Fold:
Amino acid sequence: MSALLDIRGLTLNRGGRAILSDVRLRVDAGQSHVLLGANGAGKSTLAYAVMGCAAYEPSAGRVYFDGTDVTDLPIHERARRGLALAWQEPARFEGLTVADYLGIGGRLDPAACLAQVGLAPSDYLHRGLDRTLSGGERKRIELAGVLALQPRLAILDEPSAGIDFLSEREIQRVIEALRQGGAVLLITHQEALAAGADRASQLCGGRIVCVGDPADVIAAYRSRRCRRCDGEVCHDG
Amino acid sequence: MADLAPLVQAFHEIGEDPAQILGPGTAHVVAFGHTLLSQQSVPGLALRADADADGIHARVTVEEGRHIVQPVHLCFGLFERFGVQNVDLEVLLEVNAQATFWSHCLFTVPERARHAMTARVTLRPGARLTYNEVHYHGMYGGIEVVPRATVTVGDRATYRADFSLVQGRVGRLDIDYEVAVGQDATAELTSKVYGRVTDDIRIVERVRLDGENARGLVKSRVAVADEAKAHIVGATFGNAAGARGHVDCLEIVRDQAVASAVPEVRVSHPQARVTHEAAIGTVDHQQLETLMARGLDPQEAVDRIILGMLGGPA
Structure:
């Protein structure tokens, strides 16, 4: 199977400290790949680096997307090639409605995407994407926003954080829809979501320490066994 | 009979229906420079305007308890390359009266002009007034806009004012509003301005919360680009028990533009509370990257954020 996302030796330093060290990770087309790790392990940093965020330029390594080196491309060029990110803490905007937001770059009907994340379109389409939304509502809209883009690779950064327990099923459906349309790189602390992935990696102290079947990686993670630091979940390189 | 063709064309350009605004069921006053073109009263609302060499003088009174359903349109502007327009406006809403005013200021044609407005607005107890002022300018940048307003918001009355100058360039904008708010009354002032090239923007809005449980909000949204300058003073004074006020200023600065904000809050009663927040800087980085992650290039993303903040077309 061909690699849709191929991260080769990605290293990212900040303040003289390695946040990511020689990260190698591959996500194949049609696959959902879950990234596990403790707080501060570097999961979100990796997501931002893959998306091309300005403060997350790697000091070494390359990011290939569908066989093309995208390491030096800005965010919007990566987005136009089919990369998408559901932010862990999505931004809010004055003067922008939910319909406006979903319509930016969107290929699918915003109403259908909202319905897919459990939000009634009639209640939300014309609401402002501002501080009047709760954190959970904003997170769901973010997921709907990624659905609307119909990306080839969706990076979901803790999509269930701040969303009520019952809606995990909806998130699973979103992941499945995105996987069928391309591939998913999922960052989560929710075991149920992680277990449903096709493949898993554990990030520890900025390094990939374990790759394999989600059940095995979850078991290793739960037992707090880190293959690199021998028994302790480490937080630095 | 004055030629209304330029006005009709201007209304079409800004998406307004001239037949609606100038129709017999809509209260309005229309003036180009110091020439009065049309005025109309409606049942419950008396509008009287006249013109002389000093400018346009208009007085609008809404009768006690009357709710004017159709918006009242005040159309001012110039359709010559150079000119001056002075407007003296007096608005009175009697007890429990309600109305919405739209003030359309059309300055797309002039290259060098001055538009000065002096307004006195009085809301008697229980009255409600929404006053929207929208400016449409060309890109000449030679316009001087100088609005002055003194507003008295009676007990239990509500006053909402929204000033917008987003399309085109102004040149020099110098706003100075003073609002006194009575017991259980509310005043909300919002200004949205986009300054470009060498525009010079000064906005001073003061709200005095003089009555018990008075409420006040002064909200400014300003973007400046190129070499434009903006200085915003949002002041709220809590002078009575239970008074609550807030000053909220957000300015986005691009290129070599310069912005400053002075949120002035003062409380003279121990049971009053006034808060403020001000943010000046470049476009929020997270917002920018969020929109870029949906495929907008940096310029498109910045435009989207600014026009969203200013309430312009997305």
